[in-house]
Known about the structure:
This protein is α/β, with parallel strands linked by helices. The chain has helices at residues 16-28, 43-50, 61-64, 82-89, 97-106, 120-133, 203-215, 230-235, 289-304, 309-316, 345-358, 381-385, 417-426, 437-446, 465-472, and strands spanning 7-11, 31-35, 54-55, 70-73, 94-96, 110-115, 139-146, 151-154, 160-164, 169-171, 174-177, 186-189, 222-226, 242-247, 256-264, 267-274, 277-284, 327-332, 335-340, 364-368, 393-397, 430-434, 453-457. It has 15 helices and 23 strands. Strands 8-7-9-6-12-13-14-15-16-17 form a ten-stranded mixed sheet, with helices on both faces. Strands 18-19-23-20-21-22 form a six-stranded mixed sheet, sandwiched between helices. Strands 3-2-1-4-5 form a five-stranded parallel sheet, sandwiched between helices. Helix 6 crosses helix 9 (289-304) and helix 14 (437-446) packs parallel to helix 15 (465-472). The longest helix has 16 residues, at 289-304. It is globular. It starts with 6 loop residues before the first strand and ends with a helix.
Amino acid sequence: MGERVTHVHFIAIGGTGMASLAGLLHARGVRVTGSDDVLYPPMSTLLEDWGIPVHTRFRAEHVLSDVPDLVVIGNAVGPDNVEARAAIDEGLTYRSFPDALFELAIGGKHPVVVSGTHGKTTTTCLVSSLLNGLGWDPSLLVGGHSLDFDGSFREGHGDHFVVEGDEYDTAFFDKTPKFLHYGARTLIITSVEFDHADIYYDLDHVKEAFRSCVAQLPSDGMVVAALDRPNVREVVADAPCRVVGYGTTDSATTDWGAGDVRREAGGMSFAVRRDGSAAGRAFVPLFGQINVANALAALATVTELGGSLAEAVEALGRFKGVKRRQEIRGERNSVTVVDDFAHHPTAVRGSLDALRAQFPNGRIVAVFEPRTNTSRRKIFQQDYALAFDAADRVIVSVVPDTPIYSATGEVTETFSSEQLVADLVSRGMDARAWSDIDDIVTDVVRFSEPGDIVLVMSNGSFGGICQRLLDAL
């Protein structure tokens, strides 16, 4: 299909994966168009910078008046979307995003698929950066903005294609997980926890998806798995190929281990153990135990693929990071504003712990927006109450009283920001809940002190709050 495609239209182009594939094809010289109803940075900015025309409303004529060779339908739209319906009913060639990505970009290469509840984006960028440091010229597509490659995609000439593979469903016409569509030969599993409550019933349902991904691997493939995590051990138990374990909590039971973690200027260093023996020290320009684990996963992967560990360690020290993952957005009047994507309680805890390691003496103000279909449910109400321990102040955006999408049935209980604040206050913490972003900005500015670190956590734009905080400060 790839050689015949000269014009591709993306329905719901604003998603991170969709926009990244659109950018990759545009860079090849393919004519790319798209449509969406809501666009926000960074993808809206990138699409504009690339010169890709985007309709800000869905209309049937977008696919019928100028018929593309291929229509890519994102999972953000349903069967009643007028453009998707028109494309399907008129017999146009269409694909889901994962299938289009595989057919147009991944096929013919060695797919390195990075999966897991947490750490996917950072680990994907780490693996790509290390492979590039080894001179292997990898391709990349990730659900974030890699600072090493100044973007969310890269088309290299090497054998490997590194892709972030999530377990969310593919499209309204294909409810299988995305990561089943990438033909993984090397699969990284960073963690397995309950998430995406809008499409998964419980943790066992999530495990089933990961088991399916593992089961698809070829006999000469490889799973690089965080075996110090029980759920991960469980889903790789029947792998049809070699399993390479890594871990930071009990390296004696894994092939790759990290210990003696030390905070240093600009990042963390750790001792690397391979097959039970010391293999030197590594430095990663990131903070927190979670990023030590991500770095170890990347080192293990590229080395087991045949790369030099020494060269990989050297490349690790040059890693630049990922936008919106502990990204320092600026400083005003000695107050630092940090942007982060954390939204699951485990990720919130990990991000705060990482920030505490980076700023051991500063006061941390956590600003949290429960925005995902999972975080807006009551499922993790108590878990969130224990996730903010590393913060000195907590400000929570009030969850709007609007319907929550669910493919698993009607949701009867929603997350309560006010209850979270009450739980935090009962534990002696300073916490507030506000329904308006202006009130949040006013609160932060009013009670800010020199040396404060304001950590903004949301998987959305949060109304551009980071820049608004910097302007107000």
